[in-house]
Specification:
about 130 residues; alpha+beta; five-stranded antiparallel β-sheet; 2 helices; about 20% helix; about 50% strand
Amino acid sequence: MAYRVEYRGEDFGVATLDMALDRARNAILGDIGSLDGWAVEHDESVNDWFVQGVRNGRRIGATAVVSGPRPGVVEEWERRVVFLGDTPAEAFAMAAEWLRRRPDITALGDVGWHRTADGHQLRVYFRGQF
């Protein structure tokens, strides 16, 4: 399931938590420049992470919100994975490789395409036997 990153009015999805945290950090770094580190807090009740830059021991700048899969909510086409590539071919290649390794997927739903400032985003909605 994909993770969603929201920062200063922009939002985008990625496939893993590590990718989402990296995207959040890069967005903050691009916005405010050099940092000493990061503050990351996790709210388990909603499965969100809050990321903020740290300079001189203090949090600075806007907070990026990384939203994870919501526990306990299941809809027929809720399962989604997002691939973000520098080119359309790269995004589709990542999706093809991921699907090749997932024989448990029984049907594809909608496929969404979105061009973002960070690259080409491909969303694949699917159903499987899990």
